[in-house]
Amino acid sequence: VARQIVLFLEALRLAWQAQAVRKLGPAEAAGRLAPVLPWRDLDPDDALRATARACSRLGRLGGLDSCLVRSLVFGSLMARAGEVRLRVGFRPSAAGDGDRPDGHAWVTIDGAVVTPVGQGPESGFTEVLAVPLGPR
Amino acid sequence: LSPSDVKRLATALRGGDLAWARLEDGTAVIVDARGQNVLTLNETGLLLVDALRQGAASEEDLAATLVRSYEVDAATAAADARAFLERLGSAFAGTAG
Q1: A33 phi, psi to nearest 5 deg
Q2: Which residues in B lie closer than 8 A to residue A126 (C-beta atoms)?
Q3: Of A17, A28, A127, B54, which has the fewest Cβ atoms less than 10 A away?
Q4: In whole angstroms, what is the distance from residue B29 CA to residue B20 CA?
Q5: For the residues of B47-74, what is the DSSP string, one character each?
Q6: Closest to B64 (Cα-Cα) out of B49, B53, B74, B55
Q7: Given A88, A92, A124, which is nearest B31 (Cβ)?
């Protein structure tokens, strides 16, 4: 339980830092995220849960809670799990012709999508940008 | 845009400072390497991006591409090429080339 609480607080801190994405964009914001604790052997499901709770909590307080923020937080927590990449992609707008395309962000570890099913490239998003996350 | 601005954008497209991808519906998006600015392109815009990546270096080069690819007169092509470059330059003003 103590580990879950610490993980949540770490995710909350990262989610706060990730708010910088609004001004800096994902690449520069990613460069500023740094987990305080060396989360080795972290279960991706635990990291996803902590990320969802932290981002949701911050969102209720007026912060930005988006797939991009969640991906930044989750990817940073998992930064030591392998080659972690934040991926940003787009697909044609579901709203109709001429509209701005839908954007989405997801995370891969060693090339495999680790964000929940239905929220990655399998949903028709074409990857445009990949940003490394992890120890620099 | 000045010729040096056009050259800078073309270099950015070739070198990866501007990433782009074609979407399933034939449109495309361009994103700067920071992921901060996004520009949507229709098929004509994508044609011009391809031309820039393949060596077009001026508004005139792009207009010539349009004349070759579509049945448009030179004046219309020049205006379209200029509008495209202004849109591209406006979206990615600070992108290194």
Answers
A1: -85, 130
A2: 21-24
A3: B54
A4: 6
A5: HHHHHHHTT--SHHHHHHHHHHHSS--H
A6: B74
A7: A88
Put simply, the answer to whether A24 touches B36 (Cβ < 8 Å) is yes
3-state DSSP call for residue A45? helix
Give the pair of three-digit tokens for residue A58: 């911050």
**Which residue among A27, A128, A131 places its CB closest to the CB of B20?**
A128
Using an 8 Å CB-CB cutoff, list chain B residues near A20. Answer: none
C-alpha to C-alpha distance for B24 and A73, rounded to whole angstroms: 29
Q: Which residues of A touch B38 (CB under 8 A)?
A: 90, 103
The 8 Å CB, 24+ separation contacts for B46-52 are B46/B22, B48/B81, B48/B84, B49/B13, B49/B20, B52/B6, B52/B9, B52/B10, B52/B13, B52/B14
For the segment B16-69, what is each residue's pLDDT rounded down to a tens digit? Answer: 889 889 998 888 999 988 888 889 999 899 999 999 999 898 999 999 999 999
pLDDT by residue (tens digit) across A7-49? 999 999 999 999 998 888 888 888 888 777 767 788 999 999 9
Note whether B21 contacts A92, CB cutoff 8 Å: no
